[in-house]
Amino acid sequence: MRRVVFVVFEGFQAVDLVGPHAVFHYAQEAVGGYDCRVVAPRAGLVRSSSGLPMAAEYGIDGIDGLEPEGVDTLVVIGGPGVVEARGDGELVAWIGAAAAGARRVASVCSGALLLAATGVLAGRRVTTHWRKERQLAADHPELTVDCDPIFIRDGHVWTSAGVSAGMDLALALVEDDHGPELALAAAREMVLYLRRPGNQSQFSVPLWSAQPSSDPIRRAVRAIQDDPGARHTVTALAACAGLSPRHLQRRFTAEIGSGPAAYVERVRVEAARRALTEGDEPVAALARRLGFGTAETLRRTFHRRIGIAPTEYRERFGSVR
Questions:
Q1: Which of 6, 42, 258, 260 could form a cystine bridge with 59, CB 3.0-4.6 A?
Q2: Cα 171 from Cα 192, distance rounded (Å)
Q3: Does 216 lie in the same domain as 70?
């Protein structure tokens, strides 16, 4: 039985806890093997940053105290209250002691600030919520802070970007324990996108895509995901996979569930969705960069796949105003 311990505090971000906890709960229901616990400076109700009270089963001392020994996976949650929490010497010491014996140590969102206070992250490449990037780098120059990926694994230490990225991290942890099939099943159950593993791009692998089961097709899929805008003809992908074009077409369709051309188009549309929500790159430039060629081709493809035009999608969901 693997004990997964989530550390919270006054002013934690509720989604940082509930999302990853739900992923592990699904895995526990499916295959067993997880014992999930929530610990706070004191047992009892802990108020989240949104005002939602959550019950912490354990404190770090007293009758209801949870010993730092025996933790398999330690997950430090983030939230606005992390600034005060990292000034709590007893909490920092407990986290450090638990991390010292844990098989895996993780932080969600700004929880990296609290985990960094223990010294566990020293010398490692880490990520956090993009709003906390400068603060984490300034407070801990011993770290390499990279806020582009959804999550980063550096040895036994895992860190994730903001809020919902904690679910991507939890899916990766479950996959690390039980393989991709269970992680994909959990993502489907919760109607999520299954993110790419490790410290790669934040680009999401959507649920319509099965996972490749052979190395040649895995190489072809990785090439498409790493550079959606490249010229991914069947001939080029076949050379990457080390197969003949005809063999590539047949095996790709069998393993992925769609042909290479359809997969490339969907990958490009997903990349366009992310670009439209996160930046202000002109649509024509975005179309060229992602392999659509022209803005009109992007518009037609995007409308067919998503149901609205790229400009309208940016207006609705874009973070740039």
A1: 42
A2: 10
A3: no
Determine if residue 32 is left, alpha or beta; phi over 0 gives left, psi from -120 to 50 gives alpha, anything else beta. Answer: left
Name the residue range of residue 317's domain: 208-321
- Same-domain pairing of 180 and 247: no
Pairing state of beta strands 194-195 and 204-205? Answer: antiparallel
Residues in CB range of 258: below 8 A, 6 or more apart: 208, 209, 266
Query: Is residue 195 a part of any domain in this protein?
Result: no
CATH code, 304? 1.10.10.60
Task: Please count the structural domains in the chain.
Answer: 2
